[in-house]
Design brief:
about 110 residues, mainly alpha, single chain, 6 helices
């Protein structure tokens, strides 16, 4: 899916807030992860697509999930233990909350 490739390969992310997760993660890398996590939620929530083309939706979900895993492997050394824990356990909604809160979210 071209959209996933564009997110992973984007070269700039203007006007992003500073990030408390880690300086090396911000802002572009955190933005990439957030975009991938949002894309995954969008695919899951698209019930019309699921009803119309379940195989296509599944393929898109698999592709974005693999992109998230790839991002995690490539940036594991840049993120803190909490975000690593969320991504390792595929707790993607928690990971998204954590990234969007710039590392301040203390949920479970």
């Amino acid at each position: 899916m071209a959209e996933v490739r564009e997110i992973v390969g984007s070269a700039s992310t203007p006007d992003l807030p500073s990030c408390r997760i880690r300086p090396t993660l911000c802002p572009m890398n955190a933005s990439q992860l957030a975009e991938l996590l949002h894309r995954r939620l969008s695919i899951i929530g698209d019930h019309e697509w699921r009803d119309r083309d379940p195989d296509g939706q599944f393929a898109a979900l698999k592709e974005v999930s693999e992109a998230i895993d790839r991002w995690h492997r490539e940036h594991r050394h840049e993120i803190d233990a909490r975000l690593d824990h969320f991504l390792t356990g595929a707790s993607y909604e928690k990971a998204l909350r954590y990234v969007e809160s710039e590392g301040s979210w203390r949920g479970h």
